[in-house]
GPI transamidase component PIG-S isoform X1
Amino acid sequence: MIQDKSINYDLNMDEKYRVYASMSFAILLLGVGMPLWWHTTTVPRVMLPYTGIDELSQLDIRITTKITVAALSVNRAELLAREIKQTFANAEIYHLDVDYQVISNNLLASAFTYHELEKVASTFDVDIGGLLLLEATNLNDAVLIGSKRTLYFSTETDIAKLMQVLSEWILHDKSLALTKNTLAEPTLYNLDEENRRRFPASLTYDVLITLVNPDPEKQKVIWDLKTVTKEYMQPFLDELSVLSNFSIKSQWLYLLPLDVNPRRIPDSSPSRRHFALRESILPQLVTPLEKKLASQVSLHPCINLVVYMVPCDNAPLHIYTHSGHRSRVDSNMEAFLSPRWGGVVLINPPLEVCENAREDEMVTIIPEETAIVGTLLAQLRLLLGIPETKSINGVTVVPLVGLKSRDWEIDSLLRYRTVEQLTSAKLTLQSLARLLKEISNIVITDVVGTRIKTALELVYESAEHLRRGNLEYSFVLSKEAFIISEAAFLIQHFWHFFTFQKIKSEYNFKLI
């Protein structure tokens, strides 16, 4: 009997211990295991300013530009100011702040030369991005555009011509609006020539100058390419350092013939022939060059400038337009651009050098440095986005002095770059926000979150300064926004986590 009671007691104790053990396990699982599991499996996601990013769709990028009209009479000044406001009242991207002043005729009566006009213009305070329209009595042209930020016009100048110069040469209002719209909605808009040709915004550009001698056994080229690069190209790029960083290099290439067969054309020259390249086949010349230039290994957009020394056997070589005419007449040099790639200059050897050379004898070529450098600089200006001035009757531009670009050209480039960088940063942030919303288990690190918030603040701040007319500071802010937004999108650790989480989600991988 006592033994039965002992057995029952032991059974009751075992049952009690099992209950306690189960309860302890449940408490441990709920109190420690579940929080630990939750903590170790939770995807870290920093809170992002989604509302601010969504509101970027309503961000109005508008450039305020101050224009001062200085005329000889009140009526003339008021009329011009009113006409400018009315002409650009519906401009998509501009807000013009126009004021006027009356200038004394005595001040301009003795100003006959451009330098004397510049002294008068220097008495006005014109900020970066601004413009002065100054009426001049002794002006031979209808409109003369200086190297600073002054547009001189005569007393007989037609107002319509002034408006045309402002729109097509200075403000580029239609092209700027197209730049913004094609970035935002590329399927709805087609790029114009300037936008197709210009390199997109970048923090750094590599400039590669290449001299090609396709037949070094028959022609010897004497040219100090390093000196040309150092004395001409580098100073020009240094003037544009406010826009981007530039790394410039030079190289020689040999045994690289043209990948096309020029057409032989009989003529009345002493050689009785020349060779023709149709304008339509010029892109075919770029492909073999690109394979040899090694520019594709560059980490940054590379601007290629190629000088090709045409051998005597294929000289003179000329480019023919679509209409069947030579692109250049009475010139030993031909040139063409490849949009967003670079420029090519074809140098024909002097005719007398080829005529006097004996068969299988090496000829020595000394290129005409000034003409070549001038062409390369002109190509570089166009590729970087300094707009080309199309001819307008009665309108003249003061020639460039040395290697320095005109101030109003730099202002134009600042506007283009600011609009590009602001729009690109805005679109990058919006794309990134959509991605992070769609994929809920994607990691958002503190670094990515901070960069997104900083870029967003910079976009709004840059747009605000652009509306206030602070072009230079707005450009600096837009550049920072562009850099930081790109860094947030492409950060290595972000994409590492993104790839892992995406694969894990799609294929239901389990961690054991």
Remarks:
- Residues 500-512 have pLDDT under 50 and may be disordered.
- The first helix runs from residue 2 to 41.
- The first strand starts at residue 63 and ends at 71.
- The CA atoms of residues 249 and 505 lie 47 Å apart.
